[in-house]
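Table S4 entry, YheC/D-like protein.
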Amino acid sequence: MLTFGIMTLNMESENAYINELANRAELLGMEVFRFIPSDINPHDLHVKGRRFDSKSNSWVPCQASVPTIIYDRCFYGEDEHSKLCLPIVTWLKSRNDITFLGYGLPNKFELYQALKTTALSSYLPSTQAVSDVESVLKELTLKKKIILKPINGSQGYGIYYLKKNEKTIHVKTEKQKRIISRIFPNEARLIQWLTLLLKQRHYLLQPYLELSNKEHKPFDIRILLQKNELGTWGEQGRGIRIGTTGGILSNLAAGGSVINFKEWLVSLPPAKAEYIRQELTYILNCLPTTLESAFMPLFEIGVDIGVAKDGSIWILDINSKPGRKVLLSTNPELQESLYTKPLLYGKYLSETDQTERKVYYEKTLSH
């Protein structure tokens, strides 16, 4: 029986999702084994983990060889355990005897650099890496409104909106589902704050885009793309994420809500709806092949698309380890497909010669 490995940074991560996968594995002739990278013994490639027992519907602690098919659901932070696991995962991804469903994407700036010379460049907000206060002040003076994002950020964490008024500077962020706003009376105070912020992590700077609806709530379109049991890309579904009034994020982690995409689209003027539909089709047709020509193979992509008040369409974020909350909330009929797709693609990989796949994509491994 094929062992389908699921790798996370802790045994409680994404329990609901992983349990649903495990419940469906046996019918497909597979068993699920979940483990943590830091528990691998590098000498004999054995690892302590948990095997799903379908009879008792529970996870049983056991030791086994590292599975040859691995679904990577590791979300890295700045903590010591993340730093310990990263090189272990990179080592696993470099091995020819282990195949990953997807090999991940690099940080947001490397991603931007790779896409800005492609057919998708016009959909990318102008992006620059910033490490010094002077470059932030220069762009703020020039554009009046800017956004700062962590290069390695996820779920909207650590994003700041800066607006330069005649005498003051307004800074806004969202933490624990609350909007936190601060007014700096002068540039000197702002410089003090920025100096501390840029010491903590690496940031990207982008122009502020007017991506809110009539109720002044930020919103975007979340789309999930995945490969099927034949290794072909396809769209699983899409939904609309809406943030809080006056906020800057539509992420569910920041307290956002979701609505059905089709219902949203029919509420628009027909010409605008058709334009958005055509633009999305073009982006989604280009994106997977463009990414895989630049980076290692992928299994799934979460794409966040913004629609600005002037009608322009923007690729806001691309995630190689997307969540499923938006689709499960707006398209519950997709539940079975969402929980079986990873297993079916894993089975496809196990039955295909992976040598060509690994050699063809012999590029820098990233996360």
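Residues 108-123+212-360 form a domain with the D-amino Acid Aminotransferase; Chain A, domain 1 fold (CATH 3.30.470.20).
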